[in-house]
Amino acid sequence: MVPVGSVPVGGQAGSGMKRLSVRVEGTVQGVGFRPFVFGLATRLGLTGWVSNTSQGVLIEAEGEKASLDAFVKSLSSQAPPLASVESLTVEEIPPFGGPGVEDAFEIRSSAQGGESRAKIAPDVATCPDCRAELFDPYDRRFGYPFTNCTNCGPRFTISDGVPYDRSRTSMREFPMCPRCQAEYHDPGNRRFHAQPNACPDCGPEVRLVGSDGNPLDLGGRDWATFARERLRAGEILAVKGLGGFHLACLARDGAAVARLRERKKRPHKPLAVMARDLDTLRRCCRVAQAEAELLASPEAPIVLLDRLEPANLPGELAPGLSTLGAMLPTSPLHHLLFGPGIDLLVMTSGNISGLPMIKDNEEALAQLGGVAGVFVLHDREILHRCDDPLARVAGGEVRLLRRSRGYVPRSIPVSNGPRRVILGVGGELKNAFCLLHRDQAYFGPHGGEMELEEALENFRANLRSLEKITSLHPEVVACDLHPGYNSTRLAFDLAQELGLDRPPVQVQ
User: I need a surface site. Which of 16, 112, 415, 505 has the fewest CB within 10 A?
Assistant: First the structure.
């Protein structure tokens, strides 16, 4: 294994064709890495191929030594913004022999088999290019709530395994139309090999229903116009987003916020808000440069901000607190909820307090029918529930208080990690579990309180999802020392169900 940043090309200096086999590990699937490799190799005049595998990305490249040197070095130094190259394994292999045998560089179909070490990228917020298309009346994706490209959109929440291909995502239900196919196969297009690529002709669709599940009469209006009208009228909406449902209402409407609190059974805890843009937040909160950058980052977390006084906001948003948890729109669908008279929305987890965030349409109607009057549904399945992350900038550093959408399932490097896979089940409150193996720690999404049976079922579902994506299966379980915690009892149950050779390790 070769440290990132080195140029480990073997052979002697001078002319002559050489061929390299390069294995790249890290977050290199679903982030435009194969198109990047294709473009880089083409510019350098190399032949060969690139493919996704269960271990990461595999490349064979042939050309002059100087070009190969530049190629290997650029794999890490010029990688796409969302990629994370952790290691390069480089081996010199016999060349094919020049023109006539292999005349170009190509992207090959994904290779199957072997131990899974590839990493699925997190979901990321809408990029500036897709945002511009969304609001361009002359663009074919004008107003389309599922616009995305290799630089943005869903990844983890739609992925069913590795290698990362459309056939292993919930987008497999939506065959691409000819125009989307043309983009997908065009090396000069930013949707080149973008697996969730879609448009109004072939992609997922939004539908609006009432709390009884019946379609609403939109009166000839599009769904977004109707939804905005209901928000301005004080209605509470259940909105299906990237990783689950949100409950939304006008943040400046104190009566609507109070109704939401009463129906959601959340009398005191603060509610997160979503702002149309940074200027909106600057009118009600102090937003330093570091906070602005974090809010506008691809991860787009909820950021705790100090409120301005007077901020002209109802006290019901965060009773007794001088801070406000705020985020910017995380998907095209969220962008489309803003319009005249709507610049700040409550955007809180779609659940009854104490229960996990809801991700499926039928579940939302069953649980939230007494909370929301309008349901903004869509037909793209969310495979992995993922709540919003929460962060604060303190001492000039980002402090991640809740690691979830935008960050999960990205791993955290650790030193001197164990050879056996350890499952840390997490705390009783604000639960998040962790799979630790060798030099990487993988956190599951935020799971909330462990008081109810639904939370324990959610924990198991999230654990199965992370096991599938990482191919890591617990060999040791660790938990809290407190015997009365549900998380402790769960740890003992899991150790028995998994047939482990020892009971959980308990720590204070």
Answer: 415
